[in-house]
Amino acid sequence: MGEDVETLKRRLPLLDYLRQHNWTARPVGRSEFVGLCPLHQESRPSFYVNARKDVFYCHGCGQGGDLIRFVQLSRHLSFRQSLACLDPQTSPEADSAAVLEQASAFYRQQLDNYPEALSYLNKRGIEDPILIKELEIGYAPGGSLRRHLTAQGYSFDLLRQVGLLNVNGCDAFYQRIVFPLRRGEHIVNLYGRSTGAAFAHHFLPGTKGGLYAWEKVRHCPEVILVEGLFDYTVLRQAGFHNVTCSLGTHLNTDQFLQLCEGPRTVYLTFDVDDNLSGQQAALQLARRLDAKSIVTRRVLLPQGHDPNSFFTEGGDALEFQSLVKVAQP
Ligand SMILES: [Zn+2]
Question: How far is the CA of 193 from the centre of ligand 1 (A)?
Answer without folding.
Answer: 41
